[in-house]
Design goal:
The protein has 151 residues and is mainly beta. It has one domain: PCu(A)C copper chaperone (Immunoglobulin-like, Sandwich), CATH 2.60.40.1890. The chain is built from 1 helix and 10 strands. Strands 1, 2, 3, 4, 5, 6, 7, 8, 9 and 10 form a 10-stranded mixed sheet that branches. Strand 1 and strand 2 form a beta hairpin. The radius of gyration is 16 Å and the shape is globular. The termini are far apart. It binds copper (II) ion. Copper (II) ion (CU) binds next to strand 8.
Amino acid sequence: MTNLRLPALLAALFLAAPAAHAETGIADPWVRATVPQQKATGAFMKITSPVDARLVGVRSPLAGTAEIHEMRMEGDKMKMRAVAALALPAGTLVELKPGGWHIMLLDLAAQVKEGDTVPIALTIETADGKRETIDIAAPARPLHGANKPRH
Ligand SMILES: [Cu+2]
């Protein structure tokens, strides 16, 4: 084990992660690209679980912290707020999108440029208490200015 190039090995392991959770559907993942010095951004996707479950955790090697955020009205303003879990009712497509539920990537280690791929690990807990981790790779898409998440 002298010649292992660890980053390459980790990347290979990540990409080769078995589709052990093929039953949970993740579609159209993407991350909003950032400008230099920007420390937070949003990640979005569509999740369909075949059984009642909850998204209970999020991690990314690019983010010091990752949170599940909801949007809610406070007075006349939409605000985002971290929550412990996002419900994934059986067979229901749950869409994470700008202006709605999203994953917040905080303490970004680097700028996220258009075309980059951001690894994200989702921890999903089914109603019977079993936890699974699903690794996805979300491409970065450019900013569209208007509905950029704010804290
Ligand atoms: Cu947020």
